[in-house]
Amino acid sequence: MRWRLWGSVALALLLCVAFLRFCVRFLPADAPSKERERHAPVGPGPLLVPVEGVPPSALTDTFSQSRAAGARRHDAIDILAPRGTAVLAASDGPVEKIFWSEAGGRTLYQRSPDGRLSFYYAHLDGYAPGLREGAMLKRGQRIATVGSTGNADPSAPHLHFAVHVMAKGDPWHGGRAVNPWPLLTAR
Question: Keywords for this entry (predicted)?
C-alpha cells in the first residue's frame, strides 16, 4: 500500500516537471525584447507575434489541445504575458469587429487586407485609445493590452490568438481555423 502511494506521488511529480519543461516558459520581466526577431517577417503571412516583447521562439503550439473537458479543440494559441503588455496587430488590415463574449471576454476581430484571413484576439484587458470598427491597422500597431477577461484564469493573463481562413461572404465570426503557430514561427 505504501509503495503504491509513493509511486503515485512520484508519477504526479514527474508529470508536473514535464508540464513545466514542455508547456511553460518563464521570462524575467526585464528580459530584452529582441526587437529584430519580434519585427522580422515570419511565415507565409507574414504574421508578427502579436504580443510585445515575445519572440517566436517563446511560443508554444496549443492549437490541438482540448478545452472544456475534451468537448472542443482549442483552435488557437495562448501567448502568456503580464497583464497590460501591449497587444500588436499581427498584420495589416481593418478592424472588423470589437466584441464582448462570455468565453473570450474583450475581443477584437481583424481581417487581412485581401479578406482571406481573420485574426481573433481575445481575453484583452483594454483597447488602444480611439480604436474602432473599420479602422485600418498597420502590422505592429498597438491595438490592446493582455488580460484575462471572459473565461480566462485571472492568475494567468494571456492573449488567445486565432487565425481563420475566410470564404467570400463569411461573417466576422466565420471561417475555418488554421494553426497560427507555424505562421508566427516560420515552422
Answer: Hydrolase, Metal-binding, Metalloprotease, Protease, Zinc
